[in-house]
Amino acid sequence: MKVKAYTIPELIIVMVVSSFLVLSLWGGYRFVLRCFYDYQTVHSRYESLLGIDNCLRRDFYEACQIRAAHGKKLFFQFSNRAVTTYIFEEDVIIRMIGNKTDFFNFDISRHKMEYLYLGRNMSSEIESFELDLLLNQRKIQLFYTKKYDRHSVMNLTR
After folding, report:
1. What distance in Å separates the CA atoms of residue 19 and residue 24, rounded to the nearest whole number?
2. CA 38 to CA 33: how far, in whole Å?
3. pTM score > 0.70 for this model?
């Protein structure tokens, strides 16, 4: 009696076709996974950029006094006597508030501080701050200014 079955060449052809299908699906899966990882990396870098921008902008707006030390540190004095410190190194920005420390990893190409002038005399207060960062081989320029009110300026002259 004859049994219905597939021949060996038919089975080999099915195995070859299914292996091509599995390999193409695996390649597509790896491609999607790599794109998702690249997107996550870029997204987290931009999120970090928005974070440092928001922190600096808020601190410049709310601070009573802003002072610099050694060209790499900024000290923000607030009305409640709290002090926030920023340290600018080549590849990291460190923000310290009390015992809380935040790290923002960026390549800093340049930072420039301009001091407040009271008459003809330069004070130790920072009036503007410019920061150039490299993000994904692109130069990002951040610029902040502090508008001192007349009460703050009067306190500085004493």
Report:
1. 9
2. 9
3. yes
